[in-house]
Write a structure and sequence with these properties.
About 80% of the residues lie in helices and about 0% in strands. The chain has about 100 residues and is mainly α. The protein has a single domain, classed as Up-down Bundle (Methane Monooxygenase Hydroxylase, Chain G, domain 1). Helix 1 runs antiparallel to helix 2, helix 1 packs parallel to helix 3 and helix 2 runs antiparallel to helix 3. The termini are far apart.
Length: about 100
């Protein structure tokens, strides 16, 4: 069964939320242990969220579906987490 747009949007939200939690836990661990932030798991989770987002956007385009508040929220959440990830990555290993 093909997922609905709403299901895809929720998958984006869950994936982005998981990536955010992973990122913040990695930051806390790095601070506690005076180490570099381990970003690989968060990166993988963001890639998964982006793949779902691409699937969602393709389905919307193919079916001529409108953008809803849920879809906007999902994409905004993903963008915010991606920005946090990129900021931590840009700060480099000596940020703490």
């Amino acid at each position: 069964m093909t997922p609905t747009i709403e299901q895809l949007a929720m998958q984006v939200l869950v994936s982005a939320g998981t990536a955010k939690e992973t990122l913040y836990r990695a930051i806390a661990t790095a601070r506690e242990q005076h180490q570099s932030v381990a970003l690989s798991t968060c990166h993988d989770q963001l890639l998964a969220a982006h793949k779902i987002q691409t699937q969602m956007m393709a389905k919307m385009a193919a079916e001529g579906l409108p953008v809803t508040i849920l879809i906007n929220h999902a994409m905004d959440t993903l963008m915010a987490v991606q920005g946090n990830y990129e900021l931590i990555q840009a700060l480099g290993p000596d940020w703490h």
